[in-house]
Every structure is written in C-alpha cells, then in structure tokens.
Specification:
The chain has no helices and 19 strands. The protein is an all-beta fold.
C-alpha cells in the first residue's frame, strides 16, 4: 500500500498538494487533488513536499535539498512554466523529507540548513531567516539546539505573525515541544508528559 502524507491546501479551496509514497516513504511523488472534480494526478514524479506561496508560485524541495518554484495556475492545477531552483542547502531527513522549513504569510522563510546525514546525531543546530533574495541571517545567534531523536524533528510551526516558533527539541528531559519567542526572546517548554513529543 501507499501512504498519503504532507497535505498542503491550495487557495480558495481549489485543491490539495500531497505526497504519495511507498512503505516507509522510501520513494514518492508529489500529487495534486482537484477538489472540484475529485480527481488526483501526479504533479511531479519523484518529488515531494510542495506548497503554495502567496506570490502565486508552488515551491517544492527536491531530494538534494534544493528548493524549486514556478508560477502555478490554480484553474488548471499545473505549473505555468518549468520550475527553477531558488534556494539550496535545506536539511533533509534520511527518508528525503524536509526536517524543518516554514513560510510566513508575508513570504519570509525559516529553515534548517544541513543535509540528511545530520539528523538524529545530537549535534547542535541554529535557525536562519532567508529573504526573497536568498540572503540568510540567524534567527537568534545566541541560540543553538539539538534535534529531537524521535522522528528526526521533521516539523515545526511558525506563527502567522512570525513572532513565535513551535519546535521539537531534545534536552536532558527527552524530546518535547518548545515555544521560542522570536527573534531573541525566551524559550518555553510546552509538553511535559513522559512520552517523546515532536512534530508541532
């Protein structure tokens, strides 16, 4: 069987992007579901994790950690032109999924830089903001963190106003979800149960 994961809604209820992958998501394709007709089709064979940007583009992260984007036709649910690379160096988990990347409603992107080999090792990481020109700056140069060991910290959530970040961190208490006030505010633990928590 196949797993359907990482859904991303398109504007105005037009459709949904999602990844369809094999067991353990070793291989997968980026699909689009037409909510008007109920039909689904492969949008990008071999690629995954696409999302719609407020600029009218669909972006996706390729298996090598490069971000590609192109204008997207919401009526035809198709690219208007061939996707082109716009950014590189996105950290990937061992299964090829992006570990940490989110875009605010204003178009600012926050991501983890690295490669698939660095997941789950316990090494310390930093976050960077990336603007539309590709320029990078630290979110908080004084803050470093360890990825959660459970699930490789494959997700985080940036608040719509870009002022708070929910993130899974590994500390001496184990894996928990924390809230970081941006840019240089405090870090507060959100989960306190005895099981590992991740993927906010």
């Amino acid at each position: 069987g196949r797993a359907l994961v990482r859904p991303a809604a398109l504007p105005r209820g037009r459709g949904v992007l999602f990844t369809s992958c094999t067991a353990n998501c070793v291989t997968g394709d980026l699909w689009v579901l037409d909510l008007e007709s109920g039909d689904a089709r492969v949008l990008l064979p071999g690629e995954r994790q696409g999302g719609y940007l407020g600029s009218g583009h669909v972006a996706y992260v390729a298996r090598d950690g490069q971000v590609f984007a192109a204008p997207f036709d919401l009526k035809a649910l198709a690219f208007r032109s061939t996707p082109v690379p716009v950014l590189g160096g996105v950290a990937l988990a061992a299964n090829g999924f992006v570990r940490n990347l989110d875009v605010s409603s204003t178009g600012t992107l926050v991501m983890e830089v690295g490669d698939a080999a660095s997941g789950g090792s316990g090494e310390r990481h930093t976050l960077v903001w990336v603007d539309r020109t590709g320029a990078q700056r630290p979110v908080d140069s004084a803050w470093t963190f360890r990825l959660t060991q459970n699930a490789g910290n494959v997700g985080w959530a940036l608040s719509p106003d870009g002022r708070r970040l929910a993130i899974g961190l590994n500390t001496e208490t184990g894996d928990d979800v924390w809230i970081k006030e941006l840019p240089a505010g405090p870090l507060s633990r959100m989960t306190f149960d005895t099981t590992d928590d991740s993927r906010p």
